Amino acid sequence: LDHRAAEILAKTAPFWVNYFDRFTYAKPANVLEPPFAREGGWGFASGGHFNLADDEALIVTLDPQGAGYLGFQLADPWGVAPEYADRNGSLNQSQAKPNADGTYTYVISAKDPGVYNWLDPSGLDAGLFTVRWQAVPASAKADQAVREVRVVKLSALKGALPRGTVFVTAEDRKAQLEERARSYARRLE
Prior knowledge:
The chain has helices at 2-24, 157-160, 170-187; strands at 36-38, 43-51, 56-62, 69-75, 90-92, 104-108, 118-119, 126-134, 146-153. It is α+β, with helices and mostly antiparallel strands. A hairpin with a 4-residue loop joins strand 1 (36-38) and strand 2. The longest helix is centred in the first third of the chain and has 23 residues, at 2-24. The radius of gyration is 17 Å and the shape is globular.
């Protein structure tokens, strides 16, 4: 069994390193292009990589385009998802709070900025992100799915976010993460 696992790893690791080099890291950091349609009716997908200073945040606003599922996930620079049961390294639309217009604004920063839709990179200042829109209606427009992507200083974050953005206290964040852990545990029952 260990021999077979080593064979699989020897084949898959070079594939993913090449993929990230050719399709992710060849593009500028902190950019999210309009998504591409995924074959087989899987909806849309897009991704990129972030690279932020300690005093910076990446703001990303997405339009769900009527998708049945919208998910935003972070990973380390090699594509490994951070611990996700107890941290917000990913959020789907049932875990995130929408803006008044139905879009979703996310914030990526190494330090918790107190924004409900904070994507926690587990202390990393650089890594990968992937966004998926699944079960999209025929009327969905991929070129309108990404509304805004920009880097701001943490000191200017509050003023850069949409009116009505939900902010949290330390107690609120703890409750949010406890609910996330309970939800994850339910899936394993």
